[in-house]
């Protein structure tokens, strides 16, 4: 099924490094979700923002097939799906090619020996900074308090600015009006579980000196 839908599933993403505007057929901003799961978030965002191009990235073919089903049913022209490893993003995106990175309900990898696998570990942050535009942002959501605290600390140590932090996202009725939930988020929310969110921004050297 994936191979039969090449208009949405990119089999050779390396070929589009620096050329994603050609793939989409326009120069609209590019937002990527690393660990997109079943695609509820990315397709919701694509519907909400037709003038933004979205790329869903996930290593698990099974969940990516669910995302493809959603994209096909909605006939979304502004979504592409990548079955690749999120740790090798610089192979698929040129420096400054991406406008925003989303991380939603990433695996917390709670054991210390697995710290390097967390998507907010410093090596991942360095990768995001490389592919993002100058002073680009990472928007991160999770239900895991430990991972959230770790991520805030990791981002701060890296030199990022935490523009907005939510310790109970769904209590913010204003943001709730535009919030697009992931499948996990909807499930956790029904159980009354608190959702955490941060909008963090990278800073160039001049910006860092002016803070």
TrEMBL record:
GO terms for molecular function: tRNA (guanine(46)-N7)-methyltransferase activity. It is an enzyme of class 2 (transferase). The lineage of its organism: Bacteria, Bacillati, Bacillota, Bacilli, Lactobacillales. This is tRNA (guanine-N(7)-)-methyltransferase. Residues 113-118 are annotated as: Interaction with RNA. The keyword tRNA processing applies. It comes from Pseudolactococcus piscium. S-adenosyl-L-methionine binds at residues 33, 58, 85, 107. Pfam families: Methyltransf_4.
């Amino acid at each position: 099924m994936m191979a039969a839908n090449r208009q949405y599933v990119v089999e050779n993403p390396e070929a589009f490094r620096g050329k994603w505007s050609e793939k989409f057929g326009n120069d609209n901003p590019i937002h990527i979700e690393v660990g997109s799961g079943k695609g509820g978030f990315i397709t919701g965002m694509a519907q909400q923002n037709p003038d933004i191009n979205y790329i869903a990235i996930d290593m698990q073919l099974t969940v990516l097939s669910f995302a493809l089903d959603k994209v096909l049913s909605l006939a979304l022209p502004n979504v592409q799906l990548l079955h690749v490893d999120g740790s090798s993003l610089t192979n698929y995106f040129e420096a400054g090619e991406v406008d925003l990175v989303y991380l939603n309900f990433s695996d917390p990898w709670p054991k210390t020996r697995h710290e390097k696998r967390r998507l907010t570990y410093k090596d991942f942050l360095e990768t995001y900074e490389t592919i993002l535009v100058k002073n680009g942002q990472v928007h991160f959501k999770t239900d895991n308090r430990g991972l959230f605290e770790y991520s805030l600390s990791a981002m701060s140590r890296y030199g990022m600015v935490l523009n907005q932090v939510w310790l109970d996202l769904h209590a913010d009725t204003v943001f709730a009006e535009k919030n697009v939930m992931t499948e996990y988020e909807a499930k956790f929310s029904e159980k009354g579980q608190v959702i955490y969110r941060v909008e963090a921004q990278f800073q160039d050297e001049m910006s860092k000196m002016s803070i």
